[in-house]
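Saturday, quiet lab. Running sequence design on the structure tokens for the scaffold JK sent over.
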């Protein structure tokens, strides 16, 4: 999700990103993702960093809570990214 988003920002918009946190908000600003989805998954980059860099400090209950909505959010992300080229002429999504 994050790596693909970074690739889209760089390739389609010429906007390389410095941090994972800027990927989702950048996709929202460019109209690739809806504002609602950006808000829902906004903490994903931070969660990714905790998972990768500080895995000993993970709270299993928080991981479980995040995983409960993950399939729906990933599916919505995929739908919006795939629909983006067709929607691009309409500007940013609500």
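Result came back. Writing it out in full:
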């Amino acid at each position: 999700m994050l790596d693909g988003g970074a690739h889209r920002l760089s390739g389609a918009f010429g906007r390389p990103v410095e941090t994972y946190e800027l990927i989702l908000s950048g996709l929202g600003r460019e109209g690739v993702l809806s504002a609602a989805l950006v808000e829902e998954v906004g903490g994903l980059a931070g969660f990714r960093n905790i998972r990768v860099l500080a895995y000993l400090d993970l709270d299993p209950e928080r991981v479980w809570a995040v995983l409960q909505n993950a399939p729906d959010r990933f599916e919505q992300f995929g739908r919006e990214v795939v629909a983006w080229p067709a929607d691009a002429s309409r500007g940013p999504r609500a």
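Notes for JK: Residues 34 and 93 are 5 Å apart (CA to CA). Residues 2-87 form one domain. Ask whether to fix the surface positions before the next round.
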